[in-house]
Amino acid sequence: MRKIVFDIETKNVFADVGKHDPSLLDISLIAIHDSETDSYSSYVEDELGKLWPILERADMLIGFNSDHFDIPLLNKYYHGDLTKLKSLDILKEIYKSYGRRMKLDQLAEGTLGKKKIGHGLEAIQWWKNGEVDKVRDYCIDDVRITKALYDHAREHGKLVFKEGGKLNEIKLDTKDWEKPIENKLTFTLPF
């Protein structure tokens, strides 16, 4: 199964576009981990054409808050429909099991014992300052964390988050996470 773990950084925030609609934002950079090559890569807006063939051959997209944020935003740029791909949104799975949302940083600290190297608002400022490498490093680090959380959940059936100095366990049913779906994306780009 070819799995793509991904994360997107934006050039702007919801206050800039006047609505809480991810598709109104603009992508600065997307980073991925491709299980087929076991490698990380990133793409700025004018390089997205190189990303589409990778996504079109994927069996599954994995992200954090990706069904609500990343996929609708990425679909703004893609000429097909990325919702046709199987996706696993770790935050959505946590909400189903635990009944609330939480930050990626809380899960990284609780499950992996590490903190993120920044936050999204910093990445927007770095982009505006022309510090693309900082945005790239930050986004790839978030992908590494998301992949590690996914792998941990699959292996142990749980994640841990840190809140108020306390560690809290979230049990997750992962048995169907990699179950194939019939409606796989089949090259929806117009030719």
| Residue share in helix | 25-40%
How many β-strand stretches?
A: 7
Number of continuous helical runs = 7
Taken as a percent bin, the fraction of beta residues is 15-25%
Assign the CATH architecture.
2-Layer Sandwich
Terminal CA distance:
26 Å
Radius of gyration: 16 Å
The 3D shape can be described as globular
CATH topology: Nucleotidyltransferase, domain 5
Number of domains: 1
Uncertain ranges? none
Strand order, largest beta sheet: 3-2-1-4-5
Largest sheet: 5 strands, mixed
Mean pLDDT: 92
What is the CATH superfamily classification? Ribonuclease H-like superfamily/Ribonuclease H
According to CATH, what is the class? Answer: Alpha Beta
| Helix/strand order | EHEEHEHEHHHHEE
Structural class: alpha/beta
Characterise this structure.
By secondary structure, this protein is an alpha/beta fold. It has one domain: Nucleotidyltransferase, domain 5. 39% of the residues lie in helices and 21% in strands. The protein has seven helices and seven strands, in the order βαββαβαβααααββ. The strands form two sheets. The protein has a five-stranded mixed sheet, sandwiched between helices. A two-stranded antiparallel sheet has the order 6-7. The protein starts with a strand and ends in a 20-residue tail after the last strand. The model has no long low-confidence stretch (mean pLDDT 92).
